[in-house]
Amino acid sequence: MKSSKIDPAYLSWVAYKFTPKIPKQERFVKIAQAYHSIHLDIMIRKSREKRSSSRYLGELGEKLTDLKLKVTRVRLEDDPYKTRVNGTTPQFFVKQVLTLTDASGNLVTMSIPSKNPSAVSCTLSGIEHEYRLGRYYLRCIGESIAPIRKLWFKSTRALAM
Fold it and tell me: How far apart are CA 8 and CA 11, in angstroms?
């Protein structure tokens, strides 16, 4: 049996806006009202709970230790301020927007601009480093993100990400 997910907004509409015309629809509305109240209770509880395993990463410029970031999402987008046409060839400068997580589940978002133009929109040039899902990276002072080769580091600094 395949289970499907019902949109909470639709459930709310059925529970409080829909006018039933036959007894089966009245029963459906009562079930929708019950599920809607349960959904609200769960969402309120989730909004109030805190992550117990989360840890404070630090302020900008502060030294961090044992920082290991895993790429969970990569999005490519054109930089509209740098995109130009050189003669008849378009040149797109693409930004990689990375969503990373540390071991505790803290989310870090970074935008990495490309230094070399690409001839195709939302595509990196062959010279640029492509970040991939599931890979581990480290943010260091004076360097771009470098692939992690060891599990432990003496210190790194938090940078604007």
Answer: 5
